[in-house]
């Protein structure tokens, strides 16, 4: 399996097994994110500021990278610290921060279902930048696999998870009147296209940067998450009055932060040793984990669209990674 195919060339069986285990763990963590957030709810609402969770996640990543370098898990490069090579990581940190905030504004111009369906266009934008920036060529079979991946995401989002009851306990009367109608404004469509382009560009640029620099992964992550902490600290401080940094946090919230931090580190390894396309498949496969955990923990029903989406994802994986 080559890097273009999402694997790591020249790995023996033990290392390939560890690589596969890492991808499975990342898939599980991605899929568990939304159910864990739901378990944090108090009276139907998240009791802490979302910016607090993002900031603490970035800070946890930074501390784990620093610890890895201090204990010698990854060797510090000889000579003077290569601080000049840190500057390029400001751009992906800025792009990730912009997209995290853009998601919030998108909800003003479209309903959540429309966003979930159309946001799958970021698979296409990532593939486009992957070919343009990294000068990789995708075969017709691989292109079809990515189209199936987009279709699976759209199918899953359109089907949704159905609550057996008409509403959630404690829902206000307005919520019982009926679902929000599907809608999107012209400005919302433009912002969604911008969101997908930024998502694809940030992913591919990070991969390009990590592969070109001959630096330990932990040091590259240290650069990236330093900018991430500074950016999110500014966004948190400028967010106006609200709960304190740790106010409203519970054991479930701490688990959300820790799992997202560990998953971010796993994804950086995928970007350095695998590819942005591999990341797309991990995120798409996590939909299956998300649905199963939501059904088990939140007692939500799996619609027929879930099984169709699972079939499409399996077919996409076979087409992209299967023998030719």
In short:
By secondary structure, the chain is mainly α. The protein is 68% helix and 0% strand.
What report would you give on this structure?
There is one protein chain. The radius of gyration is 20 Å and the shape is globular. The protein has one domain (64-74, 84-161, 182-322). The termini are close together. Helix 3 (90-106) packs across helix 9 and helix 4 (112-118) packs antiparallel against helix 6 (140-159). Mean pLDDT is 82; it is low at 1-7 and 161-178. It has 324 residues and is an all-alpha fold. It has helices spanning 13-39, 50-70, 90-106, 112-118, 121-133, 140-159, 173-176, 186-212, 217-237, 251-273, 276-297, 304-321.
The quaternary organization reads as: single chain
Classify the helix fraction into a percent range: 55-70%
Which secondary-structure class do the elements indicate? mainly alpha
Low-confidence segments, given as residue ranges, are: 1-7, 161-178
**Given the C-alpha coordinates, what overall shape results?**
globular
Order of helices and strands: HHHHHHHHHHHH
Distance between the termini: 12 Å
Radius of gyration: 20 Å
Taking all residues together, what is the mean pLDDT? 82
Number of domains: 1
Q: What topology emerges from the helices and strands here?
A:
Blueprint lengths: L12 H27 L10 H21 L19 H17 L5 H7 L2 H13 L6 H20 L13 H4 L9 H27 L4 H21 L13 H23 L2 H22 L6 H18 L3
Helix pairs in contact: 1-10, 1-11, 2-9, 2-10, 3-8, 3-9, 4-6, 5-6, 5-8, 6-12, 8-10, 11-12
Please tag this protein with its features.
12 helices, disordered N terminus, globular, 324 residues
């Amino acid at each position: 399996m080559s890097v273009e195919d999402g694997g790591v060339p020249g790995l023996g069986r033990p290392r390939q097994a560890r690589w596969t285990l890492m991808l499975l763990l990342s898939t599980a963590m991605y899929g568990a994110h939304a159910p864990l957030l739901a378990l944090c709810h108090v009276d139907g609402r998240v009791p802490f500021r979302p910016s607090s969770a993002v900031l603490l996640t970035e800070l946890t990543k930074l501390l784990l990278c620093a610890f890895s370098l201090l204990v010698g898990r990854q060797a510090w490069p000889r000579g003077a610290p290569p601080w000049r090579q840190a500057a390029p990581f400001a751009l992906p940190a800025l792009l990730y921060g912009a997209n995290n905030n853009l998601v919030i504004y998108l909800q003003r111009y479209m309903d959540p279902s429309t966003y979930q369906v159309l946001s799958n266009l970021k698979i296409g934008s990532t593939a486009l930048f992957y070919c343009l920036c990294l000068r990789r060529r995708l075969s017709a079979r691989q292109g079809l696999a990515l189209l199936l991946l987009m279709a699976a995401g759209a199918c899953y989002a359109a089907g949704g998870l159905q609550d057996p009851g008409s509403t959630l306990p404690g829902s206000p009367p307005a919520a019982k009147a009926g679902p929000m109608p599907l809608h999107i404004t012209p400005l919302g469509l433009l912002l969604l296209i911008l969101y997908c382009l930024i998502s694809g560009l940030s992913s591919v640029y990070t991969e390009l940067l990590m592969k070109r620099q001959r630096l330990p992964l932990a040091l590259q992550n240290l650069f990236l998450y330093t900018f991430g902490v500074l950016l999110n600290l500014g966004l948190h401080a400028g967010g106006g009055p609200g709960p304190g940094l740790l106010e409203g946090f519970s054991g479930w919230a701490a688990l959300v932060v820790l799992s997202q931090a560990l998953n971010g580190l796993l994804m950086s390894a995928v970007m350095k040793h695998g590819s942005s396309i591999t990341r797309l498949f991990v995120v798409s496969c996590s939909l299956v984990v998300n649905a199963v955990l939501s059904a088990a923990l939140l007692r939500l029903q799996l619609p027929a669209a879930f099984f169709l989406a699972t079939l499409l994802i399996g077919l996409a994986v076979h087409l992209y990674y299967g023998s030719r």
